[in-house]
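Students often ask why inverse folding is considered easier than folding. One informal answer: many sequences map to the same fold, so there is more than one right answer. In these notes we will look at a single instance of the problem. The structure comes first.
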C-alpha cells in the first residue's frame, strides 16, 4: 500500500498515511483515519479530518464533542520507519523500511 504524505500549513510533510494508519516522520504510529476521513489519535480521541492538500484540519470550536473511538489493531507491524525526500526535479519520493 502506498504512503500518502500529510502536510503542514507551510507545505512540509509532517506525517504519512498508510490507510488507515497515520505515522509521524519517525515512523511512530500516531493515529488513524476512518473511511469518512476523520482523524483519531492512537488513544481514540478525535483530532480532525483529512482535507485536500492533504492536510489534517479541525474546526476551532464545535458544539459537541465526538465520542472516543476504539483504535484499530496496532500498526507497529504495518510500518517501522519511513523516509521522505525530494528528487532533483522536485518529485516527492517516499521509501518504506520494514
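Output (designed amino acids):
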Amino acid at each position: 500500500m502506498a504512503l500518502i504524505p500529510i502536510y503542514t500549513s507551510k507545505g512540509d510533510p509532517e506525517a504519512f498515511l498508510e490507510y488507515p494508519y497515520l505515522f509521524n516522520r519517525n515512523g511512530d504510529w500516531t493515529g488513524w483515519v476512518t473511511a469518512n476521513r476523520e482523524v483519531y489519535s492512537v488513544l481514540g480521541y478525535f483530532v480532525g479530518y483529512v482535507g485536500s492538500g492533504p492536510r489534517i484540519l479541525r474546526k476551532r470550536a464545535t458544539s459537541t464533542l465526538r465520542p472516543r473511538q476504539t483504535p484499530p489493531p496496532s500498526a507497529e507491524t504495518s510500518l517501522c520507519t519511513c523516509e521522505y525526500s525530494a528528487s532533483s526535479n522536485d518529485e516527492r519520493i517516499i521509501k518504506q523500511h520494514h
